[in-house]
Amino acid sequence: MNRMPTPHKDHSLNLAPASVGDYRELARKRLPRQLFDYVDGGSFGEYTLSANRDDLRDIRLRQRVLRDVSEMSLSTTVMGQELSMPVLLAPVGFGGMLARRAEVQVARAAERAGIVFCESTLSICAIEEVAQAVQRPFWFQLYVMKDRSYAEDLISRVKAVGCTTLILTVDLPVIGRRYRDGRNGLGGGISAIGIMKQKLDFARHPSWARDVALGGRPLTFGNLERALPDAKVPQDFQRWVDGQFDPSVTWDDLEWLRSHWDGKIALKGILDADDAREAAARGVDAIIVSNHGGRQLDDVPSTIRALPAIVDAIDGRIEVLMDGGIRSGLDVVKALSLGARACLVGRPWAYAVAARGEKGVDHVLRIIREEIRVTLGLTGITNVRDLNRSALVDP
User: Fold this and answer.
1) What is the model's pLDDT at position 190?
2) Range of 74's domain?
3) Is the dihedral of CA 347, 349, 352, 353 positive or negative?
4) In this structure, what CATH number is given to the domain that contains residue 44?
């Protein structure tokens, strides 16, 4: 088992970050370009990536006054699991490339904050390593592969460590065209000159090299050790994806999943009301309104724009969560006002762990919590469970 990670120190930071945006800038400075662009970028022209943020900014909250907001409650439940605030940490592939054994650090931060961490199939740290670091159950995000035995093996391991919920990602029958990754050679297909540029880029980021490239080994996909026993990160990944990600998965495969998993199931990647109705009819426990952070099909609606119609279509039959564009507590309040039960955040924790390790994730979660509290107080609402469209101007 790998040694437990410790938060790295960055003496180049003169001012404490005050927002998720500040952490993004710190991560940009600390990470090699191909890794920062992998986290920060989207597909095609990145229009949906931008729309996720722009459309959230366009929503206006109602300011209400002379209401007693001396006591507030931010807690909620998602699929029966208590959360101290309506936020979960989304699955992020390659997370362990951002900081030393990053998934372990992030899972510990989530546990301290009283929320849930969702481990990615494509994490660097194996689920067993994460499970040894925490006491509370975490969730696991699953991709269905052509060779079902890989997925079945993962499900058995997820059961063994006590995970309560599987997130099945359904918006990735093929990989979106992510041009930043292509330019940076992420996933292979890079020239000799490109490889030289990568090495120079790594050399320009010595703190990352010490913390991750040297101190964070083994840099392999811990959850896919049987599928990729000799793979390195990330060059061998594209080859495996091309051969194993299954574009033939349909709604009927939910029956296969249920035959191997008796816990909660959430479908991540729902963006259409008809698909939401089908998910509810198929008996899943929740859906996550998501466009993969703008990383799959470009020019689709932002998640906040898609959310209201999906909430109306579901009509309370199953829980609705939202992922995409969330960068602050204000964003969380807006999403809950439009019917989301809670929000998943991915890039905020990725920026934070890259910039300041575990302490950075702790801080970002405190920032978001305080922003939710302040936003509730200024809208005259004392409980996140009471949020609805009446909290918005022209919802």
Assistant:
1) 58
2) 20-393
3) negative
4) 3.20.20.70
